[in-house]
UniProtKB/TrEMBL annotation:
GO CC entries: cytosol
Keywords: Cytoplasm, Ribosome biogenesis
Residue ranges annotated for the Ribosome maturation factor RimP C-terminal domain, each copy included: 92-157
Annotated compartments: Cytoplasm
Organism: Mycobacterium gordonae
Ribosome maturation factor RimP N-terminal domain span: 20-89
Main function: Required for maturation of 30S ribosomal subunits.
Gene: rimP
Chief localisation class: cytoplasm
The keyword Cytoplasm belongs to this UniProt entry's keyword annotation: yes
Name listed for the protein in its UniProt record: Ribosome maturation factor RimP
Biological process per Gene Ontology, one example term: ribosomal small subunit assembly
Domain of life: Bacteria
Protein family membership: Belongs to the RimP family.
């Protein structure tokens, strides 16, 4: 039985150019043909956060492109298209993820079994720069990405302390000058 839906590969190939022009890349496509109507979810990420206007524009463009595939996608009921960002629950696994999380607080599990929490100052050349608190002092700790077993963003409900932001700015200046 055919669902009338494109494959994950077809969706990625069809939409990649449009998303790239907008400054985003497709991280994943999930096609669920079991729901009625079927659902196509496109997860996109970029150096700037996806806002509602951008999601709406990308959704319209994606819908137009998908509708052009051999007529109606998904059969007589059509399909539901959802464009979204990966969300904060996504683990950080690549240097690019850490760069995009600059300024966010993260929890790390390290290869030596230790745990560490801090604010991402940047990531370059396989190394994470993390603002950490040791007692009353803040410092920037350099951690090889290969030493990180797991990293997740912490959800914060208040702005970061001023001292952490100042150290982030200093670390960014050092990274840019390197």
């Amino acid at each position: 039985m055919t669902t009338g839906l494109p494959s994950q590969t077809q969706v990625i190939e069809l939409l990649t150019g449009e998303f790239a022009r907008a400054g985003y890349e497709i991280e994943d496509v999930v096609i669920n043909s079991r729901t009625r109507p079927p659902r196509i979810t496109v997860i996109a990420d970029g150096d700037t956060a996806l806002d509602l206007d951008t999601i709406a524009a990308l959704s319209r463009a994606a819908s137009d492109l998908l509708d052009d595939i051999d007529g109606a996608v998904g059969g007589p009921d059509g399909y539901v298209l959802e464009v979204s960002s990966p969300g904060v629950e996504r683990p950080l696994t690549t240097e690019k993820h850490f760069r995009r999380a600059r300024g966010r607080k993260v929890d790390l599990a390290l290869a030596d079994g230790s745990q560490l929490a801090g604010r991402v100052a940047g990531a370059a050349d396989g190394t994470l720069s993390l603002v950490v608190r040791t007692g009353r002092e803040l410092l920037v700790r350099e951690i090889p990405l290969t030493d990180i077993i797991k990293a997740v963003v912490q959800v914060e409900f208040s702005p970061p302390p001023k001292a952490e932001l100042e150290l982030l700015d200093q670390a960014q200046g050092t990274e840019a000058g390197a």
